């Protein structure tokens, strides 16, 4: 991580920056066996990107509880929630996801964004929603340097 702490303001190519952000990210899965690692990584991150499955209504209450627990002791950590799988029939819309995750309770001190995304099932192309999310994340990353 430290090796990547160069002055990103000097970089003017957004594509390069987006790729660099992805390189610098620490993806941690959401499975039960991996959740104990979340708090371990949290102090090292500039920005939390929390991905939920918008079509998995049954697990949204757990996703809400875990998100709130994760950030309860860090009132300023910026959070980007990706409401993924928006392409699936029955997926909750952004307003429903906002309510299901109780994002209005997350506090007004931090930057918080909620974006609907989806990826092609075969991974063949990057959707425009995912490109928008990547660009937002890159811009936030720049601001946080
Ligand atoms: N239609 C659609 N499928 C997706 C999307 N994102 C991931 N998938 C597919 O969903 C399947 C499961 O992927 P994920 O939900 O990301 O996997 P996971 O989070 O490890 O699995 P769970 O913990 O069981 O939810 C894979 O076949 C992915 O290709 C999406 O936005 N739309």
Automatic annotation (TrEMBL):
InterPro entries (UniProt xref): Arf-like_GTPase, P-loop_NTPase, Small_GTPase_ARF/SAR
MF (Gene Ontology): GTP binding; GTPase activity
Organism the protein comes from: Anser cygnoides
Record-listed GTP binding positions: 30, 84-87
One Pfam family cited in the UniProt record for this chain: Arf
Keyword Transcription: no
Keywords attached to this entry: GTP-binding, Nucleotide-binding
Name of the protein this chain belongs to: ADP ribosylation factor like GTPase 9
